[in-house]
Design brief:
By secondary structure, the chain is an alpha/beta fold. It has a single domain, classed as Rossmann fold. It is built from 16 helices and 14 strands. The chain has a ten-stranded mixed sheet with strand order 1-2-14-13-12-11-9-10-8-7, with helices on both faces. It has a two-stranded antiparallel sheet with strand order 3-4. Strands 5-6 form a two-stranded antiparallel sheet. The longest helix is centred in the middle third of the chain and has 17 residues. It starts with a helix and ends in a 5-residue tail after the last helix.
Amino acid sequence: MAVAVKATAILHRPPLIIAQRREVDLLDVRRKIVGGSSVDTGINLSKSYYSSSASGTCRSTSTSAAASGEIQDEEGLPITTLEVNQIKDICSKWEWRGYTINYLKYEGDNGHKSNPTVLLVHGFGASVGHWRRNIPTLAQTSTVYAIDLLGFGASDKPIGFEYTMEAWAQLILDFVEEIVQKPTVLIGNSVGSLACVIAAADAEQSLVQGLVLLNCAGGMNNKAIVDDWRIKLLFPLLLLIDFLLKQKVIASFIFERARQRESLRNILLSVYGNKDNVDEDLIQIIREPALGEGALDAFVSIVTGPPGPNPVQLMPTINLPVLILWGDEDPFTPLDGPVGKYFSSLPSQVPNVSLSVLQGVGHCPHDDRPNLVHQKLIPWLATLPSS
């Protein structure tokens, strides 16, 4: 994992990124309108809603519990967060094609939900717990679901399974149809975003109501085909990494090193803008599933497998409302990299896409600086019909 992470950082961190960030910092933070779609490079929204948010009560299929603990972010706004062990207690299981999938349903205290139902889909190596700082706030106005993709979290990690982006997208669609059973906004981070894009592009889907992409990945791994000389130059290195990871002894050694606490801490610190949020709970959320049976096989299959459908080809087929939130300090998919440039250009090309660039934020905006995400996400959800 450490080798793969370092290779990813090399691929996606362009030499001019420092100059790019300096230019972004000088941008006017007021709202801009590009081609009829909103592009917001600032973070200046009313705080009254968030300062009055209260803890919610979770109702899963069999249990309920109250959210506990409030922390303050850099702006002094309260963030209600769920404890890691509490999340485990309120999760439920769903059988999907012979595999057990872990998920959470959270409704909060407010019985009337003015915003549509949302489904939260984590990124690589994460799980339901990665949304612990978002679920209670979103539950004030939406019924919230969160899911562990097959191969991650407390979901099954079947030995010999060939993981693909298409399989995860189908899992999402089946979950919405069988468990949620109502129009749903898909909210994803990293590869979870790409899985949501693939699901939303499915011509037969009827229950996906909208799409929120948090630093969307270009593929399941670094072999995503994009027009970028750096990726083409390092492609032989990626193939070598794949070959090495397919050797069980080598893969076991790398994976064992990567899942050590300090290794995970260093990796997370490299992708978070807000270093304070790289806490022991986050490390536990990532590390614990990596210790389970099948975790190594899942890691190797995902890193060495096909990258999956290209979002550049899929996004033009999606007519649903789309909100893109992008951290400007992401070393994996930076704004001036090929994936970041493409998504940044979308609002000027199509009317259904809105973009907000979040300053001082890394690859996981929802956990890095949750209030910045909430300030953009909740008003946007309010513009959609309630489900």
